[in-house]
Each structure stands twice: as C-alpha cells, then as structure tokens.
Specification:
The protein has one domain: Four Helix Bundle (Hemerythrin (Met), subunit A). 68% of the residues lie in helices and 0% in strands.
C-alpha cells in the first residue's frame, strides 16, 4: 500500500500478528464457527416471508456480526503486513487471499445493508 514503510512499527506489529500461531488458530476456529453458523441456517422463512425471532436466531445473527468484523480485521491486518498489490508477496496475489477478500467484501455489503433485499 506504500502507506507504511518496512520499518514502520504498526506494520511490524501487523506482520507479527499475522505470523503468530495463536492468531492463525483463532482464525481457523472462527472459520469453523462460521461454517457451523451457516450450516444451521433455516431457510423456511423464505416461504413465509417472516424473519425467525427465536433466541437461537438472535444469537446466530450476533455471531454473524462478530465473525464478519473479525474477518474484516484479519483482512486489514494482512493487507498492512503484506501490501495489497505491489511489492514482494502482496496479499492479493495469493489465491486463498483473493477468496478471503471476496468474502470480506461480501461481509462489508452485509454490514452496511447494501447486500440485503
């Protein structure tokens, strides 16, 4: 991004965080929780036109927001640590990171309400 130099403290801490094994394990746990959250969706509301209001679905929605915000944070930290397009080993050149970026963009649309009906 050319905003933060190689010796910038903020970028240094972003690189440290991205390479920290605990962060990677936590990210994997979030992906697993998100997959379970998606797998437990009930699409019967499409037929009735009413949103489910049970406590289970309220908790699911809260989990959705928390996971989405974390994925946005993870993407931001990776972009600062690796660079976005230019330099050696930029974020967007990796295939998995391209998918990650699309998921984050989708999450941003979800959070802003632009992706809803």
């Amino acid at each position: 991004m050319y905003i933060f130099g190689v010796k910038n403290k903020f970028r240094y801490y972003c690189v440290w965080l991205v390479e920290w094994s605990v962060f990677e394990h936590f990210l994997t746990l979030c992906i697993l929780i998100n997959a379970i959250n998606i797998a437990t969706n009930d699409y019967s509301s499409r037929e009735t036109g009413q949103e489910p209001t049970a406590a289970f679905y309220v908790v699911k929605k809260i989990i959705d927001y928390i996971i989405t915000v974390f994925f946005i944070f993870e993407c931001f930290v990776n972009v600062i640590a690796m660079g976005f397009i230019f330099g050696s080993g930029p974020y967007i050149k990796d295939g998995w990171n391209k998918l990650d970026f699309l998921v984050v963009l989708n999450g941003l649309l979800f959070l802003t309400g632009l992706g809803s009906k």
